[in-house]
Amino acid sequence: MPSFMSFWTKNGRLSYNLSSIDPERHTLDGVDSGLSMELASGQLVDRYVLDSKIGEGGMAVVYKARHKTLQLPFALKFLKVTDKSIRQRLIQEGQLQASLRHANVVRVTDVLVHQGSPCLVMEYINGPSLDEWLAQNNPSNGQAEAIFMQILDAVQEAHELGFIHRDLKPA
Question: Strand 4-10 and strand 167-169: pairing?
């Protein structure tokens, strides 16, 4: 299943988010874009209280949220499109990423439905994206190799579970 991976630094280690939405097969042409719901800081979504928007792409928006009972931070990923096939792909993404257990992979812990649209509940990574980290640092060859080895290790794990991806990027 085509996908992309986004990378973050986490406690000196690299983490990535696997997404199964293929931008070449699922473009915004002919798809109703824009969230079908309004999301705001302080809003309750199931058992999570939204804190702030932490990322946005062409297909989805990600919010930092706090579990109401556990008081732990999570990242909630909401689709910005209403196309049923893309919604189903988000659920598949959640199932696939939840099955991938690796120190360098952001965990999906749940799938919610909010106002008729699926939402992935993911481990919250407190740290810069790899892209941001690289812009702020000038890694030595040894550091670059260590980062690359973490990427390869995570990708190998994904491949062993049958994940196929076409776009690795540091953002």
Answer: parallel
Q: Are 61 and 72 in contact (CB under 8 A)?
A: no
pTM across the whole model? 0.74
CA distance 6 to 17: 5
List pLDDT tens digits, range 19-62: 443 333 333 333 344 455 679 999 999 999 999 999 888 888 99
**How far is Cα 159 from Cα 16, in angstroms, rounded to an integer?**
14
For 87, phi then psi, to 5°, come to -60, -40
Q: Specify the length of the chain in residues.
A: 171
If we measure between CA atoms, which residue out of 88, 74, 104 comes closest to residue 7?
Answer: 104
Dihedral, CA of residue 110, residue 7, residue 87 and residue 95, to nearest 10: -40
- How far is Cα 81 from Cα 90, in angstroms, rounded to an integer? 11
Tokens of 41: 């800081």
What pLDDT, on a 0 to 100 scale, did the predictor assign at position 165? 66
Supply the residues annotated as catalytic: 167
pLDDT digits (tens, 9 = 90+) for 92-148: 878 888 888 888 888 899 999 888 888 999 999 998 888 888 889 999 999 999 988
